[in-house]
Write a structure and sequence with these properties.
This protein has one domain: 2-Layer Sandwich (60s Ribosomal Protein L30, Chain: A). The chain is 23% helix and 32% strand. Helix 1 packs parallel to helix 2. It contains 2 helices and 8 strands; from the N terminus they run βββββαβαββ. By secondary structure, the chain is α+β, with helices and mostly antiparallel strands.
């Protein structure tokens, strides 16, 4: 078994003792990402649409840095602070996962780091 920590400066630096992702053989486990702009280190302004887009761009950068792509994502965990924003979130999300979208769980949570509206974690698998 090969276990490698993944890091790219095209995604936010971890704000705690964790890796952006861990690659184990043909699988990539991406840590929960909140909508931090990697260029500024700050939470992006705007609502759920803007924050969803930033999170997915961060995840895409981490995937690509490890030789994966969004099409390799098999499982997604989404934490939303307000489940009433689910339709708006889904609109942006569907732009990134058009065909054969991954399995997904979405839950409402009372709070997220930095006051973020959303956090997403994924598991990707290379065929």
């Amino acid at each position: 078994m090969t276990r490698i920590a993944v890091f790219t400066d095209k995604a936010p630096k971890p704000i705690g003792p964790y890796s952006q992702a861990i690659k184990v053989n043909n699988m990539l486990f991406v840590s929960g990402q909140i909508p931090i702009d990697p260029a500024t280190g700050k939470l992006v302004e705007g609502g759920i649409r803007e924050q969803t887009r930033r999170v997915l761009e961060n995840i895409k950068a981490i995937l690509e840095s490890a030789g994966f792509s969004l099409s390799d994502v098999a499982w997604v965990f989404v934490a939303l602070r307000d489940l009433s924003k689910f339709p708006e979130f889904n609109e942006v999300y569907s732009e990134y996962f058009r065909e054969s979208p991954p399995a997904r769980i979405t839950v409402e949570v009372s709070n997220l780091p930095g006051g973020a509206l959303i956090e997403i974690s994924v598991i990707a698998v290379k065929g």
